[in-house]
Amino acid sequence: MRIGNRLDEYVASREPETRSALLLTESARRLKIPKEALEEIVKPYTVYIQRLPVGMLGAVVNVMSGIVLHNRARGPYKGGIRIAPDVDLWETTELARLMTIKTALADIELGGGKSGISIDLRRLYTHMSREGRFNGAYREFERIAKGDVMEEFTDHFGWLFREHVYIPAPDMGTGGAEMVRIYNALRDPAAVTGKPDGIEGWLPGRKEATGYGVYYAILKDMQKKGTAPQDCTIALQGFGKVGAHAAQFLHDHGAKVVAVTDVSGGAHDPAGLDIPRLRAHVTAKGGLKGARAKSITNEELFRLKTDYLIPAARGHAIDKTNAKSVRAGVVVEAANMPVTYDAMRIMEGRGIEILPDAYANAGGVIASSLEYRQALGGVKFTKDMTFAHIRERFDDMHEQIAARMKRRRTMVEASMDVALGRIYETMLSRSLL
Ligand code: NAD
């Protein structure tokens, strides 16, 4: 039975043209960084590919997984663990590279890495149920299966986490519960971030951090334009760890969140949605499907005329096929690479601003850097301190980016120039180039 990618699919032969490589190449031209140096910066240092023989409900399920360690010039490799059916090596590489860019832009002492585990849990659930190995609800199956996968993953890669060579965190398809599996195996609070409340070394404010950063990035944009949250409308795709918290902060500060979608459905109300009620519905039912509101699809959501459109789900949600129909004033990349390179160009040509992922969703890794330092130093931060630190890093990023934008750069270009300039300088001073 097929439950995910096979080795040949996981390792697809050569890296396709990627957005981050294209943007870095353009930036290197502006910064006059030599081609040979750029090549070293674009490529990852280490790639691990591991087939995991996961013992699950009395069967062995073989799962492809990998870790890409992209760059650690500025600190330990840092990046989340993604569990999804279609993860492959190049997607993991692109995401790891983005982490290197993000940590440099935020000016925190971490590098970039990422993990990808390819498994279709829905298919496996159907199969296991049919075989009579499991007869409970999907959510319970998912909890058990992810736990088993994480145990095997940590068995193979725990040494990287224990040595603080690579410090993982949650990403799509993983959360605090999966990070606890790593903590339980290693008993080292500094070996993993995104630990849930109450686990040694947990950071108050970490679970809201990415959403808080998205909200704060939007608030700064509003301040720049002289508008207030009360005057702004928001459409948001993805109501998970990032999207739901971002929606809550925006809602709490008076912005009108008029539409949200997730993988199961969508909700739309031009007068503004009741976000706490929607969150309660998702907690109870597992998704937006069936929520008491007019339903909406992703494509309809992308076409809404709002002040801000926040893609907070998957990569490549906005590509050249639907970029022309986006009518929002600003697109805020809460997800990683939700806008393709082509779509970026189309939207910029139409005067739509883009707050890039490396900036807009950096709140999570900024909090992770605090969580890591906290675990190493034995101090305890409060939620207010976590949020204050995120605001301080965003203020600094904004200032650095704004200085570059005076030279007629877009925000995407300016962010890339700040990040690449820092990576290049550090690699030179460490004799890595
Ligand atoms: P998550 O798994 O908690 O939530 C993902 C959400 O997207 C869910 O609501 C899901 O239903 C929805 N979704 C999936 N496919 C969809 C589709 N086709 N249409 C509409 N909605 C869909 O994941 P997350 O942690 O919130 O991550 C979301 C994005 O943010 C990812 O790109 C991730 O890499 C990025 N990101 C996450 C963090 C973090 O701290 N979790 C930090 C930075 C960036």
Give a written overview of the molecule.
The chain is of the alpha/beta class. Helices cover 48% and strands 16% of the residues. The protein contains 16 helices and eleven strands. Strands 8-7-6-9-10-11 form a six-stranded mixed beta sheet, sandwiched between helices. A five-stranded mixed beta sheet has the order 1-2-4-3-5. Strand 7 and strand 8 (266-268) form a beta hairpin. Helix 2 crosses helix 16 (411-429), helix 8 crosses helix 15 and helix 15 packs across helix 16 (411-429). Bound molecules: nicotinamide-adenine-dinucleotide.
What is the strand and helix layout of this fold?
Layout: H1 7-10, H2 19-31, H3 35-42, E1 46-56, E2 59-71, E3 77-84, H4 89-106, E4 112-118, H5 121-130, H6 138-162, E5 166-170, H7 176-186, H8 206-225, E6 233-237, H9 241-252, E7 256-261, E8 266-268, H10 275-285, H11 298-302, E9 308-311, E10 330-332, H12 341-349, E11 353-355, H13 357-360, H14 363-377, H15 383-405, H16 411-429
Nicotinamide-adenine-dinucleotide (NAD) binds next to helix 9.
Q: Treating each run of at least 4 consecutive H or I residues as one helix, how many helices?
A: 16
Structural category is alpha/beta
Radius of gyration: 21 Å
Q: How are the strands of the largest sheet arranged?
A: 8-7-6-9-10-11
- Determine the strand fraction and express it as a percent band: 15-25%
The stretches of 5 or more residues where confidence is low (pLDDT under 50) are: none
Shape: globular
How far apart the termini lie comes to: 46 Å
Q: Determine the oligomeric state from the structure.
A: single chain
Beta strand count: 11
- Main sheet specs: 6 strands, mixed
Provide the helix percentage.
Answer: 40-55%
Q: What is the mean pLDDT?
A: 95
H-E string: HHHEEEHEHHEHHEHEEHHEEHEHHHH
Bound heterogens, unique? nicotinamide-adenine-dinucleotide
